[in-house]
From TrEMBL:
<dbReference type="Pfam" id="PF04505">
    <property type="entry name" value="CD225"/>
</dbReference>
<protein>
    <submittedName>
        <fullName>Dispanin subfamily A member 2b-like</fullName>
    </submittedName>
</protein>
<feature type="transmembrane region" description="Helical">
    <location>
        <begin position="36"/>
        <end position="58"/>
    </location>
</feature>
<feature type="transmembrane region" description="Helical">
    <location>
        <begin position="84"/>
        <end position="108"/>
    </location>
</feature>
<dbReference type="GO" id="GO:0005886">
    <property type="term" value="C:plasma membrane"/>
</dbReference>
<keyword id="KW-0812">Transmembrane</keyword>
<dbReference type="InterPro" id="IPR007593">
    <property type="entry name" value="CD225/Dispanin_fam"/>
</dbReference>
<comment type="similarity">
    <text>Belongs to the CD225/Dispanin family.</text>
</comment>
<keyword id="KW-1133">Transmembrane helix</keyword>
<keyword id="KW-0472">Membrane</keyword>
<dbReference type="InterPro" id="IPR051517">
    <property type="entry name" value="IFITM_antiviral_protein"/>
</dbReference>
Length: 127
C-alpha cells in the first residue's frame, strides 16, 4: 500500500502455461492488522472498565475474519480493537496521573501536619 492509501498493481511479465502471453496485473493488498498483542498487554497490564477484554475480543474477531478471507470485516474489527486499546491507554495514563497527584498532595499534607505537630510538641515541652 502506498502512502496515499491506494493499492498498487504490479505487472508480471511472462506467464504460466495456458495463460495469455500478455502482461498480467496482480493487485497486492496489505493484510489488516488485528492488534492482538496490544490487546493482550492492555488486558493484563491495565484493564480499565474491562476495555482490555473488549479489545481482545475484537482482536480475535479480526483475526478470525482474516483467516476466513473477509478482509473488510477484519479491517473493521481491527480498527475497533485499535480504538478501544487507545481509549484504554488514555484512561490508564489519566488514572496514573491522578494517583500521582493524590499521593503527592497527601504526602505534602502529612509532612505539613507532622511538622506542625513536632513544632507544637517542642514548644510545649521545651525540647
Amino acid at each position: 500500500m502506498n502512502p496515499s492509501g491506494h493499492h498498487e498493481a504490479f505487472p508480471l511479465q511472462g506467464g504460466y502455461p495456458g495463460q495469455p502471453a500478455g502482461p498480467t496485473v496482480v493487485s497486492i493488498r496489505e493484510s489488516p492488522k488485528d492488534h492482538i498483542v496490544w490487546s493482550i498487554c492492555t488486558l493484563f497490564y491495565g484493564n480499565p472498565c474491562c476495555l482490555g477484554l473488549a479489545a481482545l475480543i475484537y482482536s480475535v474477531k479480526a483475526r478470525d475474519r482474516k483467516v476466513v478471507g473477509d478482509l473488510d470485516g477484519a479491517r473493521d474489527y481491527g480498527t475497533t480493537a485499535c480504538r478501544i486499546n487507545t481509549a484504554a491507554v488514555i484512561l490508564i495514563i489519566l488514572i496514573v496521573i491522578v494517583i500521582i497527584i493524590v499521593v503527592s498532595v497527601s504526602a505534602a499534607q502529612t509532612a505539613a501536619s507532622y511538622n506542625r505537630y513536632s513544632y507544637n510538641y517542642n514548644n510545649h515541652y521545651g525540647k
